[in-house]
Amino acid sequence: MTYQLKIDQVIHNIENELYHLNDFIHDHPELGNEEFKAVEQITAILEKYGFDIERNVANLPTSFIATFDHHMDSLKEPYTIGLICEYDALAQLGHGCGHQLQAPSIIGAAIATIKACSDLSFIIKVIGTPAEETTSGKLPMQKAGVFKDLDLALMMHGSDRTTVDTKSLAINKIDFEFTGVPSHAAVSPELGRSALDGVMMLFNGIEYLREHITSDVRMHGIITNGGQAVNIVPEFASAQFSFRAEKRSNLNQLLKRVKRVAEGAALATETEVRIKTVKQLESKVNVQTLNDVLLKNAELAGAVRISPPREKTGSTDFSLVTHHVPGACLRTAFVPLHTPNHTKAWVEAGKTTEAHDAIRVASKALSYTVANFLTSPDLRHQISYEFKQAHQAL
Questions:
Q1: DSSP one-letter string for 261-287
Q2: How far apart are CA 165 and CA 224, in angstroms?
Q3: pLDDT per residue over 22-77, tens digit each?
Q4: What does the DSSP 8-state code read for residue 47?
Q5: Is the separation of the CB atoms in 205 and 227 below 8 Å?
Q6: Which of 315, 393, 387 is nearest to 153 (CA)?
Q7: Cβ–Cβ < 8 Å for 132, 296
Q8: Where in the chain is the domain with CATH 3.40.630.10?
Q9: Which residue ranges does the chain devote to CATH 3.30.70.360?
């Protein structure tokens, strides 16, 4: 029996357990770094199937690494495969980004691999990464060296189509904090220096940058503090912006200009500004052969709406992983085409037959890909070559 048929049989035997996990996580949405119920359920299943669990990785209370060491040859180090999942929800919305699909799919792929490929030598690591939507758990996990010893990293994500992203945008999320001089806005406005004026000047300056940036750049921000009362000249005001671009070099040039805009806004309003980067992610390192294999395997697994890579994309902390190891993320269709994420439509689709189908497809496709990697020296060589070439082009 082929590995593919063995994998299919394993997934068939455990699929109801995977669907139940999806539905539980969907019905118990938890914000980043608070995903205790999800992690308890996920790790309980992995322990049942023989995985050793390491918790509190990188001092993150809802992170984990579940390891299955199937080391058959004492003279040869086995390949280590990282299967990565997220499980955080969105504030006020719930699972509007489909993260409840990820752990069931990754667990399915992991269990299918250890059972169907038992004649091969390997180490499987299921890596639970919290808070993708907010603080990006992969950042401290990367700094702790979690991903550096992997030979391959795979993920899945829900989508309106089935595809594999070839790119993501580098991003810097930045806080701008302006400090002025308070005064009564009616009695003595001339004595005040409005921190809010500084914020408004910042917004205006960034707007004037838009004519002079490349088309891949995205700049979007909100006022996080605009003052406390209308009759007080605001002593403190703040804004948060995300700046994105396809290339880190372009983004760094933009950030230099943004810094001057912020300093100019403070100078013009006689306020002071503090600029603080709260998150920085890189663009994805693309390995096209790995993408092609993963998407072909999705087709073999019965995926619907197989599509070319998206022209427009956002940012992901999975990009950090791809700077250490060849990696790919399968996006699996479970909502109607052109349905945007971070919406109620995604929440409402979270426990549907289509959602369960996406889990089954992703579990199979990811496990097929692991089997391909473990059994094909030519594939491993090509992936390694393209990974090195992509790194040199950064």
A1: HHHHHHHHHT-EEEEEEEEEEPPP---
A2: 32
A3: 999 999 999 999 999 999 999 999 999 999 999 999 999 999 999 999 987 766 88
A4: H
A5: no
A6: 387
A7: no
A8: 3-168+284-392
A9: 170-281
DSSP state of 263: H
Structure tokens of 18? Answer: 């995977």
Rg, C-alpha atoms of the chain: 23
Query: Is 326:387 a contact under the CB 8 Å cutoff?
Result: yes
How many helices (H) and strands (E) in the chain? 11, 11
The residue to which tokens 């994420």 are assigned: 341
194 touches 234 (CB < 8 A) = yes
Q: What's the pLDDT tens digit per position in 175-194?
A: 999 999 999 999 999 999 99
Q: Which amino acid, residue 21? A: L
Q: Quick: pLDDT tens for 339-387.
A: 999 999 999 999 999 999 999 999 999 999 999 999 999 999 999 999 9
Contact 155, 331 (CB under 8 A): no
Q: How confident is the model at residue 323 (pLDDT cuts 50, 70, 90)?
A: very high
List the structure tokens of 44.
């309980």
- How many C-beta atoms lie closer than 10 Å to residue 297's C-beta? 24
Q: What is the pTM of this model?
A: 0.90
CATH class for the domain made up of 170-281: alpha beta
Question: What CATH number does the domain located at 3-168+284-392 have?
Answer: 3.40.630.10
Tokens 């669907």 found at: 19
Short-list 170, 360, 353, 198, CA closest to 265:
198
Query: CA dist 265 to 205, 207, 244, Å?
Result: 8, 13, 22
Could you tell me if 134 and 315 are in contact, meaning their C-beta atoms sit under 8 angstroms apart? no
Quick check: 316 and 280 in contact, CB under 8 A?
no
110 token code pair: 């992991």
